[in-house]
Amino acid sequence: MRGGHVVIGYEPNERGTDALALGLLLAGRARARVSVVNVPPSGWPTHTKAAVDAEWVTYLREEAENALEAARRIVRDRAPGQTPPPVGVDYRIHHHRGSGRGLADYAADAGADAIVIGSAPGGPRGHIRMGSTADQLLHGSPVPVLLAPSGYAALSVPRLDRLTLAYLRQPGADRALAFAASLAGRLDLPLRLLTMLIGDAARGGRGVRLREQMLERLRVEGAADLREAVRNVAALPEPDPISVSTEIVAGTSAADALARAEWRTGEVLVCASGQGGPLRRVFLGDMAIDILRASGVPVAFLPRGAAPPSDGRG
Question: Which family does the UniProt entry place this protein in (predicted)?
Answer without folding.
Answer: Belongs to the universal stress protein A family.
